[in-house]
Amino acid sequence: MSPRHIRRYLSAGTGLAAAAALAACAPQPYPDVAVRTFLLDWQAGEFEAAARQTDGDPEEVAAALESAHDQLDLAGVRFGLGPVELEDDGATAAFEAQADLGIGDPVWKYTGRMELNRGGDGWRIAWDPSVIHPDLGAGERLAVNYDVPDRGRVFDRNGEPLVGEAEVTEFGVVPAELEDGGAGITELAELLGEDPAPMTDRVRSAPPEDFQPLVLMRTKDVDAEVLSEAEGITGVQTREERMPLSPRAARSVVGEVAGTAEHNISSRVASAYQAGDTVGLSGLQNVFQHRLAGTATTQVVTLDADGGQTGVLKEWPGAASGALTTTLDLTAQQAAQDALEAMPGRAHLVAVDVRTGEVLSAAGDPASFDNDGALNAQYRPGGAFSIVSAAAALRSGAATADGSLACQESTEVGGQTFGNEGPNGVWAQPQTLESAFANGCTSALAGLATDVGEEELRRTAADFGIGADWRLSLPTYSGEVSAGGGAAETAGAMTGAEGVTVSPLGMALAAGAVADGTWHAPRLAVDADDQMAAEAADGEKLDGATVEALRQMMRATVERGQATPANLGTVPVHGQVGQVEQTIGGDATTVQWFVGYQGNVAFAAVAEVDPEQVWDQYALVAGNTFLQGLPAGYVEAGYAEPKTAEEPGSSEEQEGADGAEGGDTGEGAGGQDTGQTPGQTPGQSPGQTPGTGEQTGAEPPIGG
Prior knowledge:
With 704 residues, the chain is an alpha+beta fold. The protein has 22 helices and 25 strands.
C-alpha cells in the first residue's frame, strides 16, 4: 500500500443550548462548575469563553483549542463530565470526548483529564496542551492520517488484467508551503477548472509536510503551459504516478474510473468522496467500488514542530482492496470488439459458454463507457426469435420438423398480414418447418399462431430464459413476451416482429440452451454473480426431441439457408438470422440479428442500420468475423473455472496499454498459439475472408 494522507473539513456543530445559562466570566465556586463551563464552551466552539476558565493566556488557549478543532477537521465534538476529585486547594477532573472526524470517518472517543487550582477568584483549569488530549505535549499538534490501499484490479477468467496502468499527473500541495491562508489551492482550482471546496477540505488537517494529491489527470492530456503555471503557484507540486485506470477491453462492462471534482463524483457515488480519490463511476468499477477501493486505515497522530510524527493516539484499521475476477475471456472479448468495427451504426456482440452461461464477451460499438446494450438493450428479435417460436410449435404439436407447411409470400392472421424476411423465390414451394425456418418464411410461423397459442409461446420463451427472473451484477434485460391474447398479437410474437423484446445477452443464452439442451443462468462477476445465478437457477433439461430438431434447423440455416456465409470451420456452426423494423430514439431503424453457436460458444450479434442503407447482412458479417477471430480449438475448449487472480500481481502482468481498448493482447489472440499458417486469421479456414483489424480507439481523460 502506498500512503496518501487526506484532510477533511466540515463546519463545527454546537449541539448545546445550556452554555448561555452559565456566567463564563464569573469566578466559579466549585471545580465541577468550572469544568462543565469549560467543556460546554469548547463544545460550542466558543473558544475564547472556554479559555477564560483556565489560568493560561486567553488568546493562546483559545488559539490552541481552535487549532485542535481545525487540525482534526471536526464535524463536531461532544463532551461528558466525569468524576472530579478534590485534594487540598487542587482538583482533578475527568471527561469523556466524542470527536466526529467527518462524513465517512469514525468518531474518536477518548477519556481526558485536567488539573484545577483554587485561587482568590475561584476555581480555574491549569492550562496545558494535555487538557486537549492526555498524550499531547508542548510544541505538538494533532493531525489525521489516512493510509489508502492501491485500487484493486479487474481480471478476466484466466487472470489477465482487464485494466491497464496509465501515466497520471498528480496536482497537489504541501500544506506547510502554502501562503496567504491557502490561496494557492484556490488558484490551482481555477487553473484546472475545479471546485476549490473539496480540495481545501482535503488539505486542512493533513500533516503539513506531506504532499497532498488533489487533482488527477492522464499525463498525455496535460497541457505543458498548464503544467508550468501550476508549478509556479507557491506550495503546488506535481508528481507522476502509474494507476490502473484504462480498460484494455470491455469498456462498458469494466467501467469508468474518475478522479476529479469536475465530474460531480460526490453526487454520483454513495460513499464519501474527496478530491484526488479514484472512484468507479460505471460498470464493475462502480458496482464493486468498495471491494476494489478498500477502505483507508485512519490514524489520529501527533506531530512535532517540524511535522514529524511523534505518536499515534488512535487507529482504525481499514479494509485491504481486493481483485475482481470476471468470466470474460480477453481472447473472445478482443475478437468481439474487432468484429464490430465495420458496423454502420450501433452494434453489440455477446458470447457465452453454452455449458455454464458464463459471459465470455460483451462488446459494443461504439466502445464507450455508456454503451452497455450488449447486456440490456431492448430489441425486437424478428426472425431470430424463430428459435423459440419453432420450439413452441414443436412442443404444442402444431407442427413437426418434417411435416408439410404452407409458406406463402404473406399470410393473414386475425385480420393482420404477415410477410417474410427471407429471399424471394422460395414462397409457394413445398415447405417443412425446417426449410421455412432456414429460409426465413416467417409467414409460416405466423400461420401456426392459433394452434400454438399465447400461453404455450410464453412458457417456451421462459424455458429459454426470455422474460425469466435472472440478472447480473450489472443491469441486464431478460426480455418480455407481451402478445396481448389475440390471434394477430400471438402471430406477431411468433415472428418476433411485435409483442416481443429481447437483449443480445438473452438471445445468446437462448442459443446456448439449444446447444447444451439446458438453459443456464448467466454469470459475469465471479463470486457475486455465482449467488445470483444460483438464485435464478438453471432451467430444467429441455425436451430432447425438440432440441434435436432445433439443432437441425439452425444447421440447415447455415448450410443452405439464409446464413450460408457462416458455414465455416471444422466445427459446425448453427444459427439463425433476423431482420425487423423498430423505432429507436425516435428514428426508424432496421435491426439485424445473427444468433447461434459453434462448439461450446453461443453468441448473438445485433446491428442497428439505417433502413435506407441496408446493403448487407451486417449482424451476420459481425458473427462470422467473431468466429474467424477465435484461435484454433477455442470453440472446443474445456474451460476451467475462472481462477481468482492474486493481488497485486507481477509488475509485468500489471502493464497494460494506456488507452486503446482492444489494444495488443499478445501473440495471436490472447497470446495463444493459434497453430495457423502464415497470413491466416486465427480460427479461419484456408480461403476464408479475414476478419477486421485491431481496434485502436483513443482513451478519454479520467472520467471522460
